[in-house]
């Protein structure tokens, strides 16, 4: 329990600058570590922000919890790098150890979650497969549309043919009536046009 109460205590631990003579002889090596760790920290904080933006904007995301686990894992990695840079001046090795344990837990949880969802993720259709299915559906609908247009044209032609026959029948009735009148007989089709 003392470990946690002394998390920020530095007694007994020298700053990294004073660990060995190499840092004094080649301080640029220390600064390379510091700059790389700080830049890595900044990137490791930016990546989860981008992931969070993506997860919050994407409504149909299949495995959103995996993204949150990645974010936790990456943030914890980032803080490990930040503390590694700070240790050059303030030897908070206990805090560093805790952050590394948190990172180990987050990393392990992420790996286990990835293993668990991997079969389902592999089974998801890819973009190429979805595009192929969509093209097939579009082609099928275009064929149905052409068939409907062809059937409509046949129906129009049939309707026109029926109307033409009706007109011709009317004409024939009038001719029959006219002939019957000439022969002095009663019209058969008086009330019909």
UniProtKB/TrEMBL annotation:
The lineage of its organism: Bacteria, Pseudomonadati, Planctomycetota, Planctomycetia, Pirellulales. It comes from Neorhodopirellula pilleata. Residues 127-182 form a coiled coil. Residues 31-123 form the Ethylene receptor 1-like N-terminal domain. This is Ethylene receptor 1-like N-terminal domain-containing protein. It comes from the Bacteria. The chain crosses the membrane at residues 31-55, 67-91, 97-124. The keyword Transmembrane helix applies. One of its GO terms (molecular function) is metal ion binding. The keyword Transferase applies. Keywords: ATP-binding, Coiled coil, Membrane, Metal-binding, Nucleotide-binding, Transferase, Transmembrane, Transmembrane helix.
